[in-house]
Design a protein that fits this description.
2 copies of one chain form a homodimer. The first copy, chain A, has 401 residues and is of the alpha/beta class. Helix content of chain A is 32%, strand content 20%. In chain A, helix 11 (295-301) runs antiparallel to helix 12 (305-324).
Chain lengths: 401, 401
Amino acid sequence: MFPLEEIKKISQASPSKIVMLVIDGLGGLPDTKTGKTELETAHTPYLDELAKKGICGLIDPVSPGITPGSGPGHLALFGYDPLRFTIGRGVLEALGIGFELKKNDVAARGNFCTVDKKGLITDRRAGRITTDKCIELCTLLARIKLPEVDSFVLPVKEHRFAFVLRGSKLHAELNDTDPQKTGAAPYPAKHAKQIAKHTADIVNNFIKQASGILARHHPANMILLRGFSKLPDIPSMSDIYKLTPAAIAGYPMYKGLAKLVGMEILSAEGGIQEEIRVLTDCYNKHDFFYVHVKHADSAGEDGDFDRKVKVIEQVDSALPKLLNLKPDVIIITGDHSTPTTLKGHSWHPVPLLLYSQYCRADNAQAFSESACLSGGLGRIPATDIMPLAMANALKLTKFGA
Amino acid sequence: MFPLEEIKKISQASPSKIVMLVIDGLGGLPDTKTGKTELETAHTPYLDELAKKGICGLIDPVSPGITPGSGPGHLALFGYDPLRFTIGRGVLEALGIGFELKKNDVAARGNFCTVDKKGLITDRRAGRITTDKCIELCTLLARIKLPEVDSFVLPVKEHRFAFVLRGSKLHAELNDTDPQKTGAAPYPAKHAKQIAKHTADIVNNFIKQASGILARHHPANMILLRGFSKLPDIPSMSDIYKLTPAAIAGYPMYKGLAKLVGMEILSAEGGIQEEIRVLTDCYNKHDFFYVHVKHADSAGEDGDFDRKVKVIEQVDSALPKLLNLKPDVIIITGDHSTPTTLKGHSWHPVPLLLYSQYCRADNAQAFSESACLSGGLGRIPATDIMPLAMANALKLTKFGA
């Protein structure tokens, strides 16, 4: 990919506007009966019309064959090499519940688990306790006092919680305490670098107190922590692209990812129609909008083909209002594929549609996996999208004389 | 891209011949009425016939979305990573007027500018003085004496000149003296590395003397210097490819770029017909020919669609004489796109045609942006062209056993 350091040198602010519409988990696989994917099954007259006027292609979010998590998938869309900028599991867990991580916080993903009398793990997920039970236990653990630092224990879902330490001199170079198998005792936190020894001591202090508190809450009588991490040091989109970017999203994780790269967060919890309303209201205040549509991915993960088709059709119906704003550049794509047949994220490349006055339209007659395959953009890494969007918005000067 | 160091190991000299015809600014955008680009509008029976026999594709000179200057655009065509081998603005300015830079020369791009009585810049371009006035002032500045070094002040156009220092112990790690805004005083030259302090002192001595000489030449009463640079350290094409390469070009910039990579320069100032005549005359003396057609780019920069069409048709008419020579490999492409609608270089990928006996012909029936889109070469970085040309000329042995 073209280096961010170089993009920064040639990017320039201008009044032109870019809208990037991310349909989470957009790409799919054909239904065995019809031979058509979710996107190909959906009735999408407006998307197809835009595909005719625009230029299409397929993106690899990370690399061919690699299934991205939401973090790498989105970072790539925003132009950041997902192999260079990595987001720790702990940080992602905290972002996912909307916790406002500060620069020096250390976050980890936590599991409640079951240990026997010898302290050996018998169930790494404590029989998947209810989320209500998780909330109750998190409240108990939140009372733990640690010298010099604050700790946060935040319920996520079932046996999962987020653990955050806040204070000075905290470091995240710690191993997981989760041995990833039953029959073994949890590992103590141990520092991978000397500088993190102090943090390891604090974590072990916390685990000891937690173990005492949880003793009478079998099966959730112990905790496992993994993915200790801090917020990554990412240059902001305004620094690199000279943009004033905004995110329109409903789910905490995506707001958190957008915040990581310096976007202003505009909440819209009511689906695509409300998101477009927010976009319209704030259209004069920003020159880049990331609009996130969650439910295509959720439907894919649930294996619900028809529901995913409907979500795509809802996006199509909302498109005219977006087009009315006449953005200079429109990008429509996804952060990864979520085929309903696989009930999860997949490695398949994701359809991409770019529209601008200067896009050199191709022969794509519809927005679909198969039409995008012969599109004019070819098959490109997702990290190429931002340079292309910037170029089409005439926000990049020449590279070299 | 495949590394030059590895190409060097597998390249071998052979009698086969490669002709690379570079139509500057070849790629375009559709005319809004006809929906056809400049290349698609041009009547090009010989190019189309060659496209049928050959294999087509699209190249990204630098990276998707990135608009290349002539320097990076050409380096990529010659197989050099334009991010690894960069050409300073000062060097390019000197090359552009045909100045023979030596290895340790330090070159900068100069502007005549206007300063007020306090020494603050009121016009960075001195009201765009005439080229005649520029020549007069350069002659005056050429009289400046500096201890131990020679200086050259070479008129370019209007307020622009090239400045070159020649001597021992010169270094180019200097900031621009141009603050890039009015109301500020020019910066003194300052060394970014200690080793360049001596050069900074010399430059400041020159500027002081220039300021005295120019005082009575308002509005051109001061100079600004930027892009201090030396010739980049580039391995020659004969070293890497075992070729005896020659450049057939009319404009100084392109001769300069070709010289940078070790080509012999064969001047031809009378357009494509004369270039093909020179090619024919010298055909036995070299095994690689870079032929540069400037006027497609000039027409594009002027926004003159019809003139660009005509230049392409002139190239087409000259093609039979080139084909008569029966080169083993013919490459026809551009160093970047220059759509007339944008009146400048652009980021759009550039049509590529490769013909050889062994090219595995595709289904492209014409030489055009749209036909190249589904061509057999796909969409590739421009740096892949030289390995493909070398392979088709049977000048590359196996990589690995």
